[in-house]
Amino acid sequence: MIEYIPLTIALAAFIPKAQESDRKKLDTIFRNIGFGMKDQYPVLINTDKQDHYTSYIYRKPLGLMNNEKLEHIIGHSLSKPVHVSGKRDMEVRVYHIGNMPRWDYEDIPEQDEGKWIVPIGKSLDGMEWHDFDKTPHMTIAGTTRFGKTVMLKNIMTYLIERNPDDVEFYILDFKGRLEFNPYRDLKQVRMIAGNADDAKVMLKMVWEEIQEQMSYFLENKLNNITKTPIRKRTFIITDEGGSLAPKKSHTDKQKKTFSYCTEMLEEICRVAGALGYRNIFATQYPTADSLPKHIKMNSDAKISFRLPTGYASEVAIDEYGAEELECPGRAIYKTHDRVTVQVPMLEDEDMEERLKGWELSVAEREEVSERRTNLDDLE
Ligand SMILES: Nc1ncnc2c1ncn2[C@@H]1O[C@H](COP(=O)(O)OP(=O)(O)OP(=O)(O)O)[C@@H](O)[C@H]1O
To answer: Coiled coil: which residue ranges (predicted)?
Structure first.
């Protein structure tokens, strides 16, 4: 006589121990947090074991929506990186390896997908890239010493190496120009401002250029640079944007300058993406003041390194998680989707070595410094 064995028990016999306990824990988590409808909870319909992860596919009760915090709760409860996706059939991907090792810029793989695509980092699923022609503006948050500036330098180096004749940069380096000063003589660097007064002059100049570009687009019935043969793209990079947040100790004049710069950056994000301007705004402490609302709203790519609290993470990427990133270079890259990556490491010396071929000659430098002096007329 054939004895009847319930399907779940039969399946369990073939599930290795670690997976079995993850699977059991998932069921317990759903029940404990009430992720179900009435007395129905997601039912496991498939398991798929890959090298780096195991996918658990659940059929959810009709009408049950994924909760934004679900991934966070599961990851936390299993102490493993997880990714939750899908609608009626929900995939809970549980990664086997808890750490992604540090890796270097020189190991970035080749890509031929597009001129304005830059590497973000390696996730457990492979390389993540960002396309500035599809998503023009980006914010980067992260507490001190966790990798914001390295990320900015990766982006800058990669863009110059791939588009030396077509890319240009305006840099607001509120660390007193210290971070980007070594690159001031590159032909792609139009100007570096080290304080808010210089930034104001610089942004005025950028704004005038934008107005000219706007008139040209209107006259020629153009609506997006990506649909034109225009090859130039202009990046405005702000390192430590929190410096533009007004404090009580600031004078009225300083506050006015800060608010001018902030409004200009907001306007650039609002209107200049289609004209070929890309804004990258990095800040240590994301708050309503240090990450201005319109910059955030118009930046569809958000990157966050470690942050001190879940609240700061919510400000930076609209959800928890950045408070749990363990090490420098580990970041959450959020567009319509969210992925955790390890950003490639680029040492300053390596960057200087890679870019030194594009330093201006002495004669060219004089011409540039004249152009910079003439900026005073704009004040
Ligand atoms: N992608 C990375 N991989 C490995 N280590 C990294 C990475 N990024 C940064 N680090 C380490 O962290 C240090 C600080 O990085 P970085 O200067 O980018 O920090 P930051 O977030 O800009 O800090 P601050 O706001 O204080 O300037 C680097 O010198 C390096 O040792």
So the answer is: none
CA 349 to ligand 1 center in whole angstroms: 14
Residue 2 counted as domain residue: no
Which residue type does 25 have?
K
Residue 150 CA, closest ligand 1 atom number: 18
Q: Give every CB contact of residue 194 below 8 A, 6+ residues apart in sequence.
A: 173, 174, 176, 177, 181
ipTM exceeding 0.95, yes/no = yes
Question: Do 301 and 226 share a structural domain?
Answer: yes
Pairing of strands 338-342, 189-193: unpaired
Q: Is 331 in the pocket of ligand 1 (CB under 6 A)?
A: no
Q: Compute, in angstroms, the gap from residue 148 CA to the centroid of ligand 1.
A: 6
Same-domain pairing of 153 and 62 = no
Q: How many A from CA of 246 to the centre of ligand 1?
A: 26
Are 71 and 150 part of one and the same domain? no
Q: Is there an atom of ligand 1 within 6 Å of 246 CB?
A: no
pLDDT at residue number 71: 82
What global pTM score does this model have? 0.80
Confirm or reject: Cβ of 257 under 6 Å from ligand 1.
no
Q: What are the pLDDT digits (tens) for 157-191?
A: 999 999 999 999 999 999 877 889 999 999 999 99
User: Please, which residues bridge with residue 345 across strands?
Assistant: 104
Domain that holds residue 86: 7-95
The single-letter DSSP state of residue 189 is E
pLDDT of residue 97: 59
Which domain CATH number covers 346? 3.40.50.300
Domain-terminating residue out of 95, 114, 147: 95
Give the domain-ending residue among 95, 114, 135: 95
The answer as to whether 100 is a domain residue is no
CB of 30 shorter than 6 A to ligand 1: no
Distance 241 CA to ligand 1 centre (A): 17
Q: E strand or H helix at 369, and its extent?
A: helix 362-373
